[in-house]
Write a structure and sequence with these properties.
Elements lengths: L13 E5 L4 E5 L4 H5 L2 H6 L3 E4 L5 E4 L5 E5 L4 E6 L1 E5 L6 E4 L16 E9 L11 E8 L7 E2 L2 E6 L11 E2 L9 E2 L5 E10 L1 E10 L4 E6 L3 E5 L4 E5 L4 E6 L6 E7 L2 E5 L12 E5 L2 E5 L2 H6 L21 E7 L3 H4 L2 E7 L3 E8 L7 E2 L8 E7 L3 H4 L2 E10 L2 H6 L13 E10 L7 E7 L9
Antiparallel strand pairs: 1-2, 2-3, 3-4, 5-6, 6-7, 7-8, 9-10, 10-12, 11-15, 13-14, 15-16, 16-17, 18-19, 19-20, 20-21, 22-23, 23-24, 25-26, 26-27, 27-28, 29-30, 30-31, 31-32
């Protein structure tokens, strides 16, 4: 809260601090231009080491890149197309943590993978994460069409540097700091994003051992709160959707203003501790009260759905499906589904009072981009509802690491499986089961 005064200037756009030993590291990202420059110019752009108290320069390394200090090993990491370990005092490179990237035929090309960030989680023992873990993030140069799977991750033990078979999930943030996503009811909700011409979002639900359970298509989970079992998912350019994550089935419960997460109170905090969420909307910095407080008062920023349907703005493109039950004269039942901007699925909703109120019916429905609804001719007696949905299931980037097949190759198209699916409910939509799937160019069985 005091006035900040400049006491010095250090070179480099990135900084990493070793507060225990009063060391400051600065550096600039490695680029193609820098890599192709004369050796003297490349070496001059190496990592700088400064005394944290006096700002005296202590050493300059020959390897350019982004410095990241690993306190668990008292070691420096350098992100420079790959990730190197280096001596904390001499800045000498010791080891390449991603040697598979060197197996690529070319570097800096469209379709080439490269390391873009490294983050150390020291002592992180939340329900969804392992203590002393190191996240290495890779990306693929997309040449303007998209990179494929975004931020493919490698998790390693920060102490031994051994690959981990699985790692914690991350909250979606707009700040520079990574935040672990806590487990909810011993389930981890991992966000998967595929971006090539169009963004596709999945939520992978797995247990604490990393065993896959459900994979939900059409849902972009941004934030998960363990104390309330509540999630926040993207809905439109102005609103997000509140979800009940208890029991493993995401179910809409309310609305939330669109924002990007900057930080939040610790998941392990006791009730009296800070539960504030910090975010940004446009150019405004938001300080949002805890999810319980906002939910409790319908006049605040996150109104409950109150039986209504989700809303979106005129700038969003919505594909809406509305059907009345064959027995509408008696049961007053309507069914509704929508897909927003081709990528966000709202699943199926049902009204039993001619549209006065609506409830989501997502139980068992893993493909939320529903485009068609139909009914059994004998609906009044067998209560059978059919739904068809688009789906695009993204391969978990961690699977290659689990199976020992991780490589530096570009993400292949087989990393995503696209098609259409047929779902059936025999209880008016209370629960759903998958009947059939087909690739994009194939047909589905008729449900009429």
């Amino acid at each position: 809260t005091q006035t900040l005064a400049q006491v010095g200037a250090l070179p480099g756009r990135f900084v990493s601090i070793d507060s225990l030993h009063d060391r400051i590291y600065t550096g600039d990202p490695l680029t193609l231009e820098l890599e192709q420059a004369a050796p003297s110019q490349t070496q001059a752009a190496g990592i700088h080491l400064f005394d944290g108290k006096t700002l005296t320069e202590l050493a300059v390394g020959t390897q350019p890149g982004i410095p990241v200090y690993n306190p668990v090993r008292n070691e420096l990491l350098i992100v420079a197309y790959t990730v190197y370990t280096a001596d904390v005092q001499t800045l000498t490179v010791k080891q390449d943590l991603l040697p598979e990237l060197a197996d690529q035929e070319l570097r800096w090309c469209t379709g080439c993978a490269q390391a873009v960030a490294a983050t150390v989680f020291s002592g992180s023992t939340t329900g969804g994460g392992a203590a002393d873990s190191l996240l290495l993030e890779l990306n693929v140069e997309g040449g303007g069409k998209g990179s494929g799977i975004e931020s493919a991750a490698r998790w390693v033990d920060a102490r031994t540097l051994a690959p981990l078979p699985h790692g914690p999930a991350l909250q979606e943030t707009c700040g520079s700091q990574k935040w672990l996503r806590p487990a909810i009811d011993e389930r981890i909700y991992r966000s998967l994003v595929y971006s090539r011409y169009q963004e596709i979002h999945n939520v992978l639900v797995e247990d604490l051992a990393g065993v896959h359970g459900r994979q939900v298509d059409g849902l972009a989970l941004l934030y998960a709160d363990a104390q309330t079992s509540t999630g926040i998912a993207a809905l439109s350019s102005e609103q997000n959707l509140l979800l009940d994550l208890a029991g493993g089935t995401p179910t809409p419960t309310g609305l939330w203003p669109a924002f990007c997460l900057i930080g939040a109170g610790a998941p392990e905090a006791v009730a009296s501790a800070d539960r504030t969420i910090y975010g940004a909307a446009g150019t405004d910095l938001l300080q949002i009260e805890s999810i319980e407080a906002v939910q409790a008062d319908a006049d605040q920023m996150a109104p409950r759905l109150d039986g209504g349907l989700p809303q979106w703005t005129s700038s969003d493109v919505a594909e809406v499906t509305l059907q009345q039950s064959p027995n509408f004269a008696q049961d007053k039942t309507l069914y509704w589904a929508a897909v927003i901007n081709g990528q966000t699925g709202l699943g199926v909703w049902r009204s039993t009072d001619s549209g006065e109120s609506w409830q989501p019916i997502w139980q068992g429905l893993d493909h939320l981009r529903v485009t068609q609804l139909g009914f059994s001719p004998n609906f009044a007696h067998d209560h059978t509802v059919w739904a068809t949905a688009d789906f695009a299931l993204i391969a978990d980037p961690l699977d290659a690491q689990k199976n020992g097949t991780a490589s530096g190759d570009a993400v292949p198209e087989t990393a995503i499986q696209k098609g259409r699916s047929l779902w059936k409910s025999t209880n008016r939509g209370d629960t759903w089961s998958l009947v059939a799937t087909a690739a994009d160019d194939a047909g589905l069985p008729s449900y009429k």
